[in-house]
Every structure is written in C-alpha cells, then in structure tokens.
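Section: Multi-chain targets

For targets with more than one molecule, the full set of components is provided together so that the structure can be written out for the assembly as a whole rather than chain by chain. Components appear in the order listed by the source. The example entry contains two components.
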Amino acid sequence: MIGWLIRRGLQAVLTFAAAIVILFFLMRVTPGDPLMRMTEDRQISVAEMARLKHRFGLDQPLALQFITFTSAAIRGDLGVSIYRYPDRVLDLIVARLPASLLLGGTVLLLNFTIGVWLGVLQAARRGQFIDRWLTRLSLSGYAMPSFWLALVLVYFLSTRWRLLPSAQMTDPLLDPSAPFAVRTFDLLRHLLMPAFTLAIVTIAATMQYQRTAMLEVLRLDFVLAARARGLTESQVRWRHAWRNALFPVLTLFGLWLPILVSGSVFVERIFNWPGLGSLAWEAINGRDYPLLLGTSMIVTLLVILGGVCTDLGYWLLDPRVRRP
Amino acid sequence: MTPLLEVTDLVKHYLSRGLFRAGLPTRAVDGVSFEVGRGETLGLVGESGSGKSTIGRTILRLDEPTGGRAVFDGVNVFETDRETLRAMRRKMQIIFQDPFSSLNPRMAIGSAVAEGMEIHRLAPKAEIPERVAGLLREVGLDPSLATRYPHEFSGGQRQRVGIARALAVSPTFIVCDEPVSALDVSVQAQVINLLRDLQEHRGLSYLFIAHDLAVVRQISHRIAVLYLGRIVELGTTDQIIESPQHPYTQALLSAVPEPDPRRQRTRIVLRGDPPSPSAPPPGCAFAGRCFHSSKNARCTSERPEQRTVAGRQVACHHAG
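Its structure, encoded as tokens over all components, is:
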C-alpha cells in the first residue's frame, strides 16, 4: 500500500510539473499581451511601456521568466496579478475558492446521488416506460447548452415568476448580522439555479454509465444466486449488484472532480457567481499571465487529484486490485 | 409418499418485442411435467436451447413461468406471494454452471456462505463463523480460506464455494444447472462425487441439468431427455442408457465416448439444427432430423403424445 502510494504520488507530481511547463509556454505563444490589454486604447509612450514591462518582469528572456516563476511557486508564491495589480494571485484564488467549492460540491453531490439512483432504477426497470423516458429526458438535458438552460431558467424563475434570485451568491441588501438560518436560506436560494443548471447538463453521463454497468452485472449468476437465497430485491440490487457496478461511475467521478474549482465559466458568468470560473474568465480576457497560470494550476491539480482518487477508490473497493 | 417436487405442464414463453410488431413468442419450455422424489436425482439432458436451464430457473421462480404448476412440499411455487416465496427459497437452492460469474467478486467467500444463514436467521450471529467453517470443510475447502475473495480460487474450488453457499440454508432440493460443464474432466468427477456424498449425508434431492449424457448418468436415478422445450423420453437411468427408445435419445447416447475399445458401436450423426422455438413444426419437433426407418407423414402432421413404452415415457409415434 505505502509503496503503491509513493509511486502513484511521484507519478502525479511529475504529471503536474509537465502540465505547468506546457501551460506556461502555451500562454506565451497565444496572441495578446497583458500590457496592451491593460492600457487598452490609451496613448502610451515607449518609455512608459518599457517601464511597465520591466516592472512585471516581461522584459526578461522567457527561460529566465520561467525559472523566476517556478522558484517562487515552489515557495508558495504565485506572483502578482497584472490586471488586478497589486493583488497577489494566491489571495485572489483563495478568496474565490469557497464559492467554487460550494457550487461544484453541490453539483457533484446532486449529480452522483441522483444520477446513480436513477441509473440503477433504469437498469432494474429495463425497457419499461420509466427506463425509456429517463433516457430520453437525461439525453435532452445532456444536449442542452448550459448557458442556454441557465438563461431560460433565469427568464422564467427570476424575471417572470420572481421565485429565485438571478445572480450573485448572497443578497447584497441582506443585513450581514441576520441570523444564521436566514443567511443560509438566502445562500441556498442563490445556489439553487446554478447548481441545477450544471447538474441537469451533466447528469446524463452518470445515469447512462450507471445503467449500462448495472445491466452488465444484473445478468450475472451471482445476482440470481442472491435472489435464490431469499434476499429482497433491494438487497440484491444494492448489496450485490451495485457494489460491482460502481466502478465506471467512480472513474466518471474522478473525471468530474475538477468541477469543484472550475465550476463552469459560462454558468458562473451568467449567474455572476463569484467563483474561480469567473476569475479565470477575467484572467483570460486580461491576458493576465500570472493569474491565468494560477487558476489553471488549481484545475490541473484537481484533474490529477481526480485520477489519484479514482485509483485509490479502485484499490479500496475492488479486492482484485488489492490482492494481485 | 408424495414426491418432493411435482411439475405439471410447465410452460415458459419469452416475448420478443419487435420494432414495429410484436414478434412470435419463443416457446422455451412447452408443456413439461416431471417429479423429483425425496433423496432422488433427476437428470435433465438436452442440447443448447432445449429449455433445460429455463426449467431450472422457472421452478425456483427466478424467472416467471407462463403456465403450469410446480408443487414443492405441498405448496404451488407459482402461486405463492413474494414473502412466502422468500421464506421457501431456503428449501430450494441452485448451483450454476459458470464458476466465474456465480460468485460476487466483492464478497469474501465466507461472507457469501454466511449471508443465507443471516437472511433466514438460521443461527445466532456468534455461531455463524463456526457454521461457515463447517460448511467449507464439508465441501472440501480449508476453513481458513473464508476471508479470501473469489478471484483467488480455481474453477473447481469456486464451484465448491457455490455448493457451500447453497447448503448454508439447509435446502432439501438443489437445482444443479450444468454444475460441471465448465470444469476439467478430473475436477468434474470430484465435484460429482461431492454432490453424491452430500446427497447421501443430507438426503438432498437434485434436478441435475447437463448437456452431456455421460455426466448425467453418473449421478442420476432417473433421466429426462429434452428436445425443443418438451420431454421426449423419461425413464430410469438404466432404461435410458441400456435401451433408449426415442431416436433422439439414441443419437445422444451414441455420442457418449465408450470406454471399452472392444465394444462395437455405431455413431449416429444428426444433420441440421433443431427448428426455431418460436415456430415449432406441427408434428414431432424432431421429425426434420429423425433417422428412424419407419418415419412417415404422421410424424410431420401429428404431435406425438407421451406414452409408456418398455416401462418409461416416450413421445414418439414409432417407439416400441
């Protein structure tokens, strides 16, 4: 176990390092320039431009810039934002992290609890009315662009029926000293629409993977044997079948883990959700190299972490992996 | 004494749904009747698609029957409600062909054996590990293996686990659905001997399903030969092996390897395939492949009913 963890950890660190190198240089070859963006159409002297370049270290050779960046990053310093000078990148990210974790966590929770449950239900009722309609519905959700669905929801639920707030994470007019329950309720009202938008457009994959995996297991003899021993249908379904059908969903979970920090740029923009997605959007628009690199690093980290979590899950749950 | 299990006119049709029209039902089992006595083994032979596994599964109601009765110990299994059925399952168990798919890969074999006892509360919790150890010993496995998982076992050992799992609830009747077909010949003999010993010690009754007459004859007291969802011949093992009356039984028997090289025998090679179970011919289902010299128009027009010939049941116009 320890040996495996060390090996897997080293592999993850190497992947992360390689990803950072690629990200760093890829950003520099994309068109655009943070200073041009910052000054926009203002007249600016050559000397002033050179001074700005010097201040952000952009006049250094690329290789040197990379070394400066990495040596600082290793010490936990991701540099200073250009677009939002003089804020530090790390502070910006940390400030946005809770909102992203809340939205992403809710989406993951909704997606995997409801998705798994519906997928299992579909497999148990294979070919019946409910199975066919759930497939149709979930695929329609999958086919919907998230920004379109978000706008439709805002139009009906906020503009027309005034049921839910259309943007932000909290009501700006709410007294910050209001009781905890009131503030939580306010937060949930704001969370509902963005979370459901993202859950609806992503849940189809979970359901279909779960359905297929379940169908594959349900036709195996040990399921019949369990039924023959007198287990109830739900014991057969969950204790025997599902425990052998959760692996594809585990993989999917690892793939979706980055949504915790990335949210969805579109959905966060539409609902003005103060998460990392909106921050990344700002960083892209401003060609803010340090900030963009910082947000990308967080997503990269979660992608790699998702892989490690999946492997760890297999290791914990599948005796065939555990004892080769 | 009444038989332990009495199956009358069992019918199982599968509906195939076409895209635009309802397809013809597949008549997997088409009116089958037999009995299994206490402590008896009834062998059920037939080729793939003859409906033998379907019979085993429907009488345990792992598959819902289309028609007929299966009276087990005085109760019609086909008419019990769900709760009674769950309680009855304790008395009727099943062993499967494929030792790889018949065990839950995520369950240690000890837990798999224990589960049945826990469900039916057959023993106090504290006694269960001891009972599991006893069962493993009974099927010839070391009790220390209880914490191992199925992938750590060979095919023959897995089959023994499957038998221990079935025995855990102290059944009186076990459907053995091709329990040795996936095993090496030497292991086949071991498992058959084990099943025989268990029958002797526990007074079990078996419905032993196989496609290989050579295997079935080793363990069965009586044998039923199945062809396209119907029983074509049913008699004691001696009757079937020594003097088969139905041409299909004769053909099956001629395919069994003869250990004595001095004995002469002719091999009957059947041509063609069985007809489709969704559109069986009007007469005898076997007529298309029959080699009987007196085969005539009656064979293709009138379905032969079962009648008694030389002490056993045969469904052939020309037998006897």
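Chain A has two domains: 2-74, 96-322.
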